[in-house]
Specification:
heterodimer; A: about 375 residues; alpha/beta; 10-stranded mixed sheet; 11 helices; about 30% helix; globular; B: about 400 residues; 9-stranded mixed sheet; 18 helices; PAXNEB-domain-containing protein (chain B)
Amino acid sequence: MPTQPPLPPLLAPYVSSLPPSSLIVLSTVLGAQGNWLTLRYLYAALNALSTSDAALSFGEGHNGKKQKVVLVSFLRGWEFWRAEAKRLGLDLARLTDKRQFAFVDGLSELFAGPRTTPTPTTPTTTNTTTTQTTPPSLAPSPRGGPVPQRTVLPNRSAPGPIPARGPQPARGPAVAAPAPLAPVAPSAPPAAPASREVGPVKRLHLSGKGPAALDRLEKDIAAVVGHLNGRATASAEEEDDSEVLLVLDQPDLLLAATGPGKEIGATEMTEWVMGLQQYVHATVMTLAADLPLIHNASAAGHQMPTPLETEHAAFAIGSAHRAHLVMQLRDLDTGAARDVSGVLRVSKGGAWGQSDNTDANGNWEEKEALYFVQRDGGVSVFRRGE
Amino acid sequence: MSFRKRNIGLSTGGDRTASVNASAGLQQATSPAAAAAAPESTPGVRPSPDDGRPTTSTGTPSLDNILAGHGGLPIGKTLLVEENGTTDFAGALLRYYAAEGVVQDHRVHVVGMPEQWGRSLPGLIGPADAVDDKQDKRKGERMKIAWRYERLGEFGAGIAGSRATSGDQSQPTADGSPDKRPAFCHAFDLTKRLTHPSITNLNYIPLTPSNEPLFTTIHKRLDAAIASSPPNTVHRIVIPSLLNPTIYPFESSQPDSVLPFLHSLRALLNTPGVRATAMITIPLSLFPRASGLVRWMELISDGVIELCPFPHSADALATSGAATSHEEPPQGMLKTHRLPVLHERGGGSDQNVGQDWAFTLSRRRFEIKPFSLPPAEGDKEGQDGAVSGNMPKKADLEF
């Protein structure tokens, strides 16, 4: 099977050069997850930049402007995104160091709080890998670099407790220089001394109730966006020529897992997303659009819809109305096939054509295509019958 | 089928891997530190043939086979087993999973079940491939099978099956010498009781009411148990009959109670350095798949399979469903809604996707195989006619 280009030609106009202040909703179902498409958005934004200047010009939407990406993921961890992006040729850790990318972890501590740090009970083994007993000067480097005590070859011990190469802390404006490629860092920023593993990505934690809890999350994310924009450190003219793309991966989990008991409903979520949109150039949001989550809420159902279902449907449908573009992924209607992973339908959102950037809208037309994700991560998108 | 991944030569390959493993075992004996550093040498964990990520067995060889080519459940993934009706096939799967963990010296955490549950784990027979009676049968018929197809494994047996056969091809020549490879999966007998020295290591997490929310307590205890165990321990989290009202209080089935728990469980399994898998069962009759809550539970899980046992009145159909007379009739259908890793990436390219599966639970095994309906039984004369003389002659076919 021939290797696919990272951006399938049919898909390219939809993932690159997003109009300003646009919202793109990516709806997925259980059997057709949208992570591959999310990655294509990352790729379109980040790679167009790393090939530098005039080499690749995907449309003229971003005329020389730098694109940066903030990925907020509620269901998947840093490891997953890093590994999958690597298959596309994106080194997210390096991009994080270059402050073109930031990952916000909505999985690890969203509900549970910081993990209870294990007190090393038995000091039997000599490989004190990454426990926090090591003095801060030896604090494991983000590179997984040579830690002296280890006798292991550093290349093939991945699933062990070697820390993943994680992005540098993004704890608001206090963080100084963006931590250049210094591997073993005795001069590591002492901002986060007590964190267990190194990649101290910004971790979201939901506490409290109602809009106040969401506001805190918004502030956290906004801090990361601001950090990426270089408001804290860089000069003003750098601030202007970068566009930040915000990718929200399944924020509907927040809605589902809180419910009326926590006073978070579809309205609050919508306002939350709108608030986040103010900070960034464009927003991509993935939502679950499974049948029970959308259709149970309608009156045609034979039983009373649960609050979860009504709120989810309201949020998803409301978002689609506010979106410029809705990309729906679903299973093949005729059952599973070996050479088709699912159906991609691109349709206009409620806010279609409201932006001033008309040529981008001109590239967009509604269509339906099939897609196939290969074992190696390549994706082909094709029309029916091709 | 690529030969590259198997890493096995034509004739002596099996011996080579065995010797490699033997030397690995030697290293393990000499320097425990090195063994701890090399995760591949952990019993019951092997790299996936697909992408090399560590996987562990579910205790059911045929279930391992349908998990998207990984030959097992990848570490850090959860498997949600849903069951319709009042039967307890999913419970059997859980017991195999827990028993496999006990035998492999993994740390098994059982949520919400009394110690009685652990005492009723099925008894160990031996490594799965050695016990497999099909294997013996195949040896008897060896000459009838072309040699190059033989190592492809039994039809429908999948990856683990083919690996097992290619491995023991070299065994007869070694003539009785014990297999040095540590077994990945074992066979168990449901009518016996498991007796194993490490069965006392089962960690029971009872559902005791406290002033904290129930699931918060469970999560804290799981977290503490995993954090306090030595690194490189492989954990198995067993959650039987989640949300079942005879075990769980009513309010636990609220979305804002169970979904955060599943989310934190997912977070726990995804923590770097933690090597754990989880298997959860849920009764679908009480919580139908058409409800938003169950759909969200599925979305948070990495793998979702659904068991649909045939109703008892369908025994007639079931008997006719057996492909051949000496096979046991299937007892139900199995649907895979989501497979670990594969669907996370976008899904769809697995050879097993879209198959209809049937399962059979017998005393010794839980077997999943492709479901196929036999020719309709009422159509005897039609078949006979086709065989006897009504085949179109060659002249008729030529134009």
